[in-house]
Design goal:
Blueprint lengths: L4 H14 L2 H14 L4 H13 L3 H14 L4 H13 L3 H14 L4 H13 L3 H14 L4 H13 L3 H14 L4 H13 L11 H11 L3 H6 L6 H11 L8 E6 L5 H6 L3 E8 L2 H10 L4 E4 L2 H4 L7 E6 L10 H10 E12 L6 E3 L5 E3 L1 H10 L3 E13 L2 E11 L3
Parallel strand pairs: 1-2, 1-4, 2-3, 4-5
Antiparallel strand pairs: 5-9, 6-7, 8-9
Helix pairs in contact: 1-2, 2-3, 3-4, 3-5, 4-5, 5-6, 5-7, 6-7, 7-8, 7-9, 8-9, 9-10, 9-11, 10-11
Bound molecules: S-adenosylmethionine (SAM).
The site of S-adenosylmethionine has 21 residues, from helix 12, helix 14, helix 15, strand 2 and helix 17.
Protein name: Tetratricopeptide repeat protein
Pfam families: Methyltransf_25, TPR_16
Keywords: Repeat, TPR repeat
Amino acid sequence: MPPDPVALLQDGAARHARGDLAGAERLYRQVLRHSPGEPNAHNLLGVLARQRGDVAGALRHTERALAAGPEVPAFLANRGAALAEAGRLPEAVAALRAALARRPEDPVTLRNLGQALCALGDPGAALAPLDAAARLQPAAPEPLLALAHARRESGDAEGAAAAAEAALDRAGGDAALAGQAHFLLAALGHGPAPDRAPAAYVRDLFDQFAPRFEAELTGRLAYATPALLARLLEESGTPPRRALRVLDLGCGTGLSGAALAPFARRLEGLDLSPRMLAEARRRGLYDALHEADLLDWLPGRPAGFELIAAADVLNYLGDLGPALRAIAGALAPGGLALFSVEAGEGAPFALGEAMRYRHDPAHVAALAAEAGLAPVARREAALRTERGVPVAGALFVLSRPR
Ligand SMILES: C[S@@+](CC[C@H](N)C(=O)[O-])C[C@H]1O[C@@H](n2cnc3c(N)ncnc32)[C@H](O)[C@@H]1O
């Protein structure tokens, strides 16, 4: 007797719901062995792949499911979610809308649609689906937090703060979610700015951004920081002779690594976003990549790097004291620190509405001196554009004395 596929799928889904992903996968695959192409098994394998961060697998399985059942709302919804993870946003929006046309009251799909529309730069269109998601799940903080971000991006700061407060109320013991709501409130001027952006916020932000990061930064955002830092390094006396042991902090997809490579005998990268790191790995430029928060990883490292760079990274930290001390500690004597900050004035640091920190360059210089780093060069620069306006920054080269 061949096993009953319905029973196998039910058993698999129950394991899936309990978090036993390996057990669920085994049963779904068993279904496919007996009924190749069975769309529910493909659909659930697609969900499972997405949970594991296997975007290619999620795309493959959801495509198979949808080919067999193009009208099934769950297949359309999971296809849309996989496309959104892959950064294929217009296709994701179409699939999610098609799912909602057949099953309008699906809060997860409404939230996915809202977040995809925000990522596409249309937060106004995201408001209705996110409102609906929040109404359908009144006790859940996640849709409210997503709604708060969409309101902030569409210019409704007060509405954003109200939604963030409501998310905070419902966050319960979820410290990561509460931290994100507090951070958003602080960026909106409700409450003091924390010393840094929550790591979970930065990781989620860049995980979502990873597939589109390079196209957006080098295109619409005219991102210039890596090239500007490399030029300042060379002009301040370090020739690009592939001679240095280099660490690229917050390496992202490797745009900064590409600018640093001509200086590097060995190039290591570090980032807390696994999906940015996956893109960097594909680039094939780094000798080693580390998934970590720089504030956890750097302290206690042997003083071995000859150049530590951070391009467009320190704007996710408020108090730069710990980072500068950790950088100084990981530099070999005579080693160089090279980084950018977004420039502010007056306060040592301020959290902007765009949820990044600005730093007063004079204060950064004072902190660097306290950390034992001597000035080599400093320059004002436009780091990139945002909504068509140049983002003012400061570039630093500092050295650890011999
Ligand atoms: C705007 S991107 C810049 C990436 C790269 N340096 C470049 O120039 O293209 C900022 C990167 O810093 C990473 N990042 C931010 N804070 C970090 C931290 N505390 N530890 C490690 N990585 C961090 C983010 O995950 C993201 O990939």
